[in-house]
């Protein structure tokens, strides 16, 4: 059975999306981006909400921009190779290959996806992840913790949820960013 992984950049105070502005040092640092590439290359399916899909759609054509560094080209290639499921009630059509739309998040359908998948899946975006967390679907949490405290926004973990996690890997980067991988107990 494949794992379902929730991974995002988060501020030091726990926000995956800041109310005002960015989260600080992130994936734009080549060292971090290369690590993310290697970490998620084996992912077979990305589960996105509408807003996260719109953000990630850049990778469908990133290779067309001139003078892209190798780590950017590699991520674009890996992203394009994976299946994508977009959960949206308003999106009429998708703009990327290997992508389909689901109108609602169905935990049982995701359980079947996990059971049938040959490669791991990720859920991306705090809103969609909150639904997966509430349904008890997540196997791992990958946090990329920036050096910023942003004071508000969308939380990485939803309010009202209790999780007991086991730290299985950690790494710090020269930028001050910290990667922490937790497994659900």
Helix content class: 25-40%
Q: Report the span from N to C terminus.
A: 17 Å
How big is the Rg? 16 Å
Number of strands: 10
In one word, what is the shape?
globular
* CATH 4th-level superfamily: Dihydrofolate Reductase, subunit A
What name does CATH use for the topology? Dihydrofolate Reductase, subunit A
- What is the arithmetic mean of pLDDT? 95
Largest sheet: 8 strands, mixed
Walk me through the structure.
The model has no long low-confidence stretch (mean pLDDT 95). β9 and β10 form a beta hairpin. The chain has one domain: 3-Layer(aba) Sandwich (Dihydrofolate Reductase, subunit A), CATH 3.40.430. The two termini are 17 Å apart. 26% of the residues lie in helices and 29% in strands. The protein contains 5 helices and 10 strands; from the N terminus they run ββαβααββαβαββββ. The protein is globular and about 40 Å long. The longest helix has 12 residues. The protein is α/β, with parallel strands linked by helices and 185 residues long. An 8-stranded mixed β-sheet has the order 5-4-3-6-1-7-10-9, sandwiched between helices. A two-stranded antiparallel ribbon has the order 2-8.
